[in-house]
## 1
Amino acid sequence: MKKLINKPENVVKEALEAMALAHADLLKISYDPNIIVRADAPVKGKVGLVSGGGSGHEPMHGGFVGMGMLDAACPGSVFTSPTPDQILAATKAVDGGAGVLHIVKNYTGDILNFEMAADLARDEGIQVEAVITDDDVAVKDSTWTAGRRGVGVTVLAEKMAGAAAEQNRPLKAVADICRQVNANGRSMGMALTSCTVPEAGKPTFDLPEDEMEIGVGIHGEPGRVRMKLKSAAEITAMLVNPILEDLPFRSGDSVLAFVNGMGGTPLIELYVVYNEMAKLFAKRNIKIARSLVGSYITSLEMAGCSITLVKMNDELISLWDAPVKTAGLRWGI
Amino acid sequence: MAVLPNDVIAWIRAFSESIHENKDYLTQLDSAIGDGDHGTNMDRGFQAVLLKLPDLADKDSSAILKAVGMTLVSTVGGASGPLYGTFFLQLGAATAGKAQLSLADWSAGLQAAVDGVIMRGKAGPGDKTMLDTLLPALAALKEASAAGTGLAEALRLSAEAGERGMLATVPLVARKGRASYLGERSAGHQDPGATSSELLLKAAATVWAQG
């Protein structure tokens, strides 16, 4: 293991301490339980947005705390869900009287911990609604699995629901925007390398130099198919086509196109992928209304990328364009 | 023979030590079909439990078990935190008011604990989860209890049934949790949750056989 760390068990805490120092204008951080909260929380009369999950996906979620996006994030240990006491503390910290929306990625651990926390918060008289994101087309959605994983669409849903909350829309309306983004969004990811959880000390899976894994999640869990490495054009088609067919996206649709790096892939390669994606869209007459290119939902140092597409309408576009001021995303201010 | 609060503490201590010894093994099993954190998470939780045990020395079994459950819920994370947390919370609730636990009490407690895990995790037999260890162990325990078997022998039979259940997860295709994302590729690996549950039963059988 070759990492910029002091002690594996201190990585999460030290990163949180750094965020408090680096982004003091945006957020405040409490420890035991660990929560990242918007500096001016609770915002009176505004729905509070809380998300969270394992650490190791930075900038998600802590990097999305701030005006126009999340009110709080609950960072768990690396790749491990946060605990109910953490989520409860975050929920209480951001409740401005209009209720709190939990945005939860569809992983068994995240769901169980957020459900326990929502029960506890409701016992304390806080109105809580939860929206589950489950956009990963690599996973067959069936009653025989835990369902599709929540991946890239989570970032986009947090942005657009955050904008809706900033307009002081009621809890149900904010939750509906979040659900709408998830329902119209699909993702697929791939890995060129594995990643190493600091406390595990060795790569989560072995991937030979000339092979890649298609359909990976964001925790170093193996994907569905392993094959010989191919060109960016072929890989992009393997990601884009299942996404387009799944929703389905049709000729004339306009989309928010998100090419995401897994943590170890340079931006220049993400642009190569974006270029191939745009060529495929041109053939199918799919319009790119908005785009996001960069590493926003990562798996530590994993090399690879994911593509997320959301079918957009005028309302979603205006929510996407609305001002946001967080460590990870910032525009319109 | 009956189980006293001291025995419950000895069991929790033995299980915590067993988790610590098997931390890398559990993580290795989880790396094959999950996300490679089961050993680390369980060990973090039970190390926190060990720190709590001295404060629980004068409490009854129910209070000890509930405190273990609350500690796990706030320290383990992942799916194991709420599942093992619920297991101990329900076990504690079911044994409330008992100065000592008979085989029948333990059997009823385990039933409540397993029901709690089913409710929280919405899993069933054959889904390749901890329930594949716990359900056969519970059935064996109830059978032994009905047949008038002694506590130590009943626990041994229960742990053996749990071990068979754990080994039987190897060929199964996972239908719950992250392993389910692998589909057919999850077959051929022993389930990490079923394995930690087997350690739990084995710890009870070992510690309480000596009592």
## 2
Amino acid sequence: MRVGTISRAPQQERAIGPSVSWLDRILAAATLISFVAALYLAFVYAPTEAVQGDVQRIFYFHVPIAWLAYLAFFVVFCGSIIYLWKRSEAWDIAARCSAELGVVFTTLVLITGSIWGRPTWGARWAWDARMTSTLILWSVYVVYLMLRAYSTDRQRGARYGAVLGIIGFADVPIVQMSITWWRTLHPAPVVSLEGSGSLPPEMLLALMVSLLAFTLFYVWMLRQRIQVEWLRAEIDAAREANERG
Amino acid sequence: MIQRADSAKPVPQDSDRPDDAGSPATPWAIDIAGLTRRYGATRALCQVDLAVPWDQRLGLFGPNGAGKTTLVRILATLVRPTTGTVVVGGLALPSQAAAVRCHVGYVGHQTFLYDELSVRENLQFYGRLYRIQNRAERITTLIERVGLADRADDRVRTLSRGLQQRAALARAVLHDPTILLLDEPDSGLDIDATSLISDLLVDELGRPRTVILTTHQVDVALRMVERVVVIARGAIVLDAPVNLTSASEVARAIRQSRITS
Amino acid sequence: MTPLVNQVGAILWKDLLSELRTRDLLGGMVLFGVLILLIFNFAFDLRIDNVAAVAPGVLWVAFSFAGMLGLARSFVQEKDRGAMDGLLSAPIDRGAIYLAKFLGNVIFMSVVEAVCLPVFTAFFNFGVVSVDVVAIALLGTCGFAAVGTLFSAMAANSRARDVLLPLLVFPISVPVVIAAVEATSSVFAESPLETRIRWLALLGAFDVLFGVLCFAIFDVVVEE
């Protein structure tokens, strides 16, 4: 068997390797450009915030990453539902890869939140509503990855993952609500991270561009991950077919 | 209700069975086409085709890991096929699996009995699940039939493996199924008990059931079945009537399949 | 509807009968709950002025950890004798298995709570037995058992099942724990009824939402 090609019907042969379709190139370029723009806008263009000073600039990354984390988990939710309905492996791969990215983003939210909190709150962690909810969200999806890792076979892992993907996401609003009520009952003596009032247009621009950058990054990265997983599935199938003779 | 396109034999009595949607009359008790079952990357069954007419007794042989248990579990509605069609008594799996369950009895590698309950209580439990009428009477008759009359009220935990297996057989035929799937039913049983298995191959009214029997005791099984099927590595390698097959042929088919692996 | 009730009744009765005959699970759960209360006594060195503040938390830690023991056993028992296959190959609604296990878990956890509440009162000299607390405990137990039963079916079929089950249950049941603890604490603090109503509503909503969702999705977990 030649290394480097998956042999199926002759017209379907193609090389294993990083996929470099035009869409991926455009996405990669767009991601890079928007990140450069976002960095400029966040660190140079946007005015310094009055109360917190320059440390507030982390807001331009912390907030978009948080939104992307929710988007990633929403994709897990939808992918899980569609997988259970259609039972096609492609949707399970999409859900799993999105969950991985979601965990990465959620970890970054927690880290950036802590970095922001240190000078602002005086502590590396405070049990404010949003950060606590994020911590719970993080643990749900880390457990998602563990559940899949501990499954006895891939199909069962896919099914169980889908179930947790649905239940976990359905729980998100309830967790938010319960933690917010808990916090209003026991208010922590800290300043809200985002501050009050609306954002001046320069800050809004920086925020939006940063959001665009991270969204493009998510889409591009998700595509790459899905392609790798897809290839892995194909290799397994080909190897197995080869053994059968 | 399973309809049989078989004018020679009467339709099985359904007075003690739950209602299910009517199914088209069919000459095949079991009709399998292109059945494949994958576990992750490995294929347990590969493009299996098998058609079993009503009342046929089929012996399923093959080396360990060949796919016999997987095939039987698919028919018992415990495992879904990955691809292919499986039709049991005119009802398609897995979409009509719930309807199929009333008509299938299954003995697997484990007894499905609860240790802390007695034999009688186990049968009463399953009797409730299968919605059997005249439960108490039926259970007593069945307990006597399998030779457990004196141990019926002892907890399953206290019974020997052989007696537990007898109770498992009783459980499988409790609802008088038309189709009986026996996966190594003789494991743990003593020699005398093989006559018990033969005895259970006919139903309460003396009519033969459709039977699929898996076992490693080839000689014994060949006396009980009408058709021999050998499975190896997920595919059927031999399928012949029993009068044209001998134990040595079955053994040869199994050995050959190992060599070609 | 009635066949479902019959099936649930049969399975639940079988579970209760099995448990009554061995008594190892229930005894273990109750003892574990009491031991946790004991450990908290040493951990906090509770004096009368502290007790009202920490009582709800202590109680719910005891309930949820002891409950976890029960959850872990509910499907492992079936798996060990292959009896789960016996249930799955029977002509029953698979949701009946979920409901029967759920009710069994609620009953076992309720027994633990019924013992722990008076024991707490005795250990810490602080009355916690009241209709309100019992009602909150029941609602919280139902929520905990609703997701716990589903997850225990998943964990029973996975590797590292003892580790996986708490990891699955605790993050998802955070709203239950928060609501139950806050509601119980508002009972002890004798706060206005509105606070309690709000938490009870949250508990009720969680119970209904996840009860229905887990019941519906249970088939997917046990199929193969």
